[in-house]
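user: Here is a favour to ask of a fellow structure person. I have my own habits and do not want them to colour yours. Could you put it straight underneath, so I can go through it closely?

assistant:
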Amino acid sequence: MVPRALTPVGIALVDKPAGPSSFAIVAALRRRTAARTGHAGTLDPFATGLLVLLSGAATRLGESAAIEAALRKHFGRVLRLEGDEYADGGDVLVTPDTVFIGLSARTSRTGAEALRARLRELGRHATVVETPKTVLHLKSAIRKLGGRNRVQ
């Protein structure tokens, strides 16, 4: 299965008529944009009303706040990426000596550099690496085997 793109990004407000399911409307938008798409709450097929669709990176809205709240319960310090800085966990490979940050559709150059700077604050060395265009993220292309061994 080809992963859905995180672009185009947007929020669509749909005046849903009676008949189609919420999933059918989401599927139609996915076909038109090829972007990852979801909804903020389902409506029964017979229901009419506002259906909020999230497309692309917008499907991830809200995750950070929920995760940050959970992290704050366990760690005293939580560092954030701001604005257009974004990095996906699948693009971060931690080894004893280096944290590798892959560039992909899910991790921007500004996000990778910002994460690198935050890791430096924690005394960790990080390296930003190019990810092959044929893979979703860094961990799809490389694995840590143990110790200093990695396979590509």
Remarks:
- The chain has a mean pLDDT of 81.
- The beta strands are 10-16, 37-39, 49-55, 92-94, 99-103, 126-130, 143-146, 149-151.
